[in-house]
Amino acid sequence: MSAVLLILATLAVGYYNGANDVSKAIATLVGSGVTRYRTAVIWGSLWTFVGAITAVFVSTGLVAAFSGKGILTKIPSGHGLLLSTAIGALGWIWFATRTGMPVSTTHALTGALVGAGFAAVGWSGISGSYLLMKFALPLVAGPILSTAIVFLVYPVVQRGLAKWQNYCVCVQQPAVPVLADGSALTTTSPSKIVGGSTECCESTPVTVAGVTVADSLHWLSAGATAFARGLNDAPKVLGIGIVAAAGLSISLPMAFLAVAVAMTAGSLFRGMEVTDTLAQKVTKMEPLEGLSANLVTAGLVIFASHLALPVSTTHVSSGAIIGLGLKRDARAIQWKTVREMVIAWIVTLPVAALVAALAYLILNTLS
Question: What digits encode the pLDDT tens for the residues 209-220?
Answer without folding.
Answer: 445 677 788 898
